[in-house]
Amino acid sequence: MDPVRNPYAPGAGQRPPELAGRDRELEAFDVVLERVARGRPERSLVLTGLRGVGKTVLLNALRSSAVRRGWGTGKLEARPDHGLRRPLAAALHLAVRELGVRQREEADEVLGVVKSFALRANEPGAKVRDRWQPGIDVPAVSGRADSGDIEIDLVELLSDVAGLAAAAGKGVAVFIDEMQDVMPDDVSALCAACHELSQQGLPLIVLGAGLPHLPAVLSASKSYSERLFRYMRIDRLDRASADQALQAPAKDEDAEYTPQALDALYAATDGYPYFVQAYGKAAWDVAPQSPITAADVEVAAPQAEAELAVGFFGSRYERATPAEREYMRAMADVGEQSDDGAVPTSAVAELLGRKPQSLSPARDALIKKGLVYSGERGRIAFTVPHFGRYLRQHAGDC
User: Fold this and answer.
1) Are β-strands 343-344 and 379-382 bridged in parallel, bridged antiparallel, or unpaired?
2) Which of 54, 88, 284, 364 has an alpha carbon 20 to 30 Å from 197's alpha carbon atom?
């Protein structure tokens, strides 16, 4: 098989050639866009799931849908210990530009508010050379979204941006990836702003994507967040969708798989989209000709596993400290018989011969690094599918 024509794309956030198994989410978002366009109330959306299930890819696909309808869009990726002002201002700057508002004065006024909001990210009393300047070529508007109180400022900012969109007969969608990493005060302000916008019926929605515990993060911030957002869990692909993700790109290149090869690939990948792409790419590269067979998959599996071990699993493991690695290895051993991957924190402590309280710093650091999450009190799970299996298989190397 010609490696140049290999259609598979196992990259971080890289759209696969066939976005299989996500029709429900795409159709739901189309309904949201249409309802907002007609002035009907609608909730913002939150996508949750493990790493490697395609949340970022789906977020980008939803953004493309909004762009096709003429909406203004902006996207940001939240980072731990980083405030929301700078990345959100950049995202809204782009969204306002995409709106293409003909009334230049009104657009410049709103951009001035965006700039004013962004400038509050600078430390008070900072020297001129140390002050960050957003790339917005209009004067800052004083007295709007610049109080320093993030909740007040965010309500004013989003209201002004949404008002501009409404006047233009369009809407604005803000996409936030890794939303669980938004700082607590910023999460609270974001929820309050979305609540205010929904009450006013303004055409601005937020689409967040994050790890499975994101709903708990939002709920801890504002109790009404459970009703403020529509939550959609993004999971691994079912068998039909996984086969489609493999077969459709191959068909475009005049290639195909035997049924036995598809059986072997689903058994290896469990339907996780990132794994489907990684194994599909490896199988294509080793297959001498079409159709790709189960024997080709068997030969390709070590190559795919080696690539995943370095780029998907190993890179995350390397971010952990020795104490954190010890905790993860204990999680893997405890979770060997667990169906859902979540294990009791008490069992991890028992295996290590430690008191649970003494392990809290390691656990909390792993949560902050996005390597594990706590979906419910007293239980912990890996954010990466098959990570426990990887640690057990490489116990001598880790």
Assistant:
1) antiparallel
2) 54
77 membership: H or E segment, kind and range: strand 72-77
Q: For residue 108, give the 3-state DSSP assignment.
A: helix
What are the helix (H) ranges across 270-293? 273-286
What residues contact residue 137 under an 8 Å CB cut-off, 6+ apart? none
Greatest Cα-to-Cα distance within the chain, rounded to the nearest angstrom:
69
Q: Which fold has domain 23-233?
A: Rossmann fold (3.40.50)
**What is the C-alpha separation between 69 and 60, in angstroms, rounded?**
15
Q: How far apart are the first and last CA of the chain?
A: 36
Backbone angles phi, psi at 367, to 5 degrees: -65, -45
Region 377-390: mean pLDDT is: 92
Residues in the chain: 398
Which numeric CATH code is attached to 320-393? 1.10.10.10
DSSP assignment, residue 136?
Answer: -
- The backbone torsions φ and ψ at residue 173, rounded to the nearest 5 degrees and listed phi first, read -125, 125
**Who's near 319: CB < 8 A, 6+ residues apart?**
369, 371
Q: How confident is the model at residue 134 (pLDDT cuts 50, 70, 90)?
A: confident
SS3 category, 315: helix
What's the one-letter identity of residue 216? Answer: A
Hey, is 187 helix, strand or coil? helix
Half-sphere exposure of 39 (CA within 13 A, CB side): 4
Q: Computed over its alpha carbons, how large is the radius of gyration of the chain?
A: 23
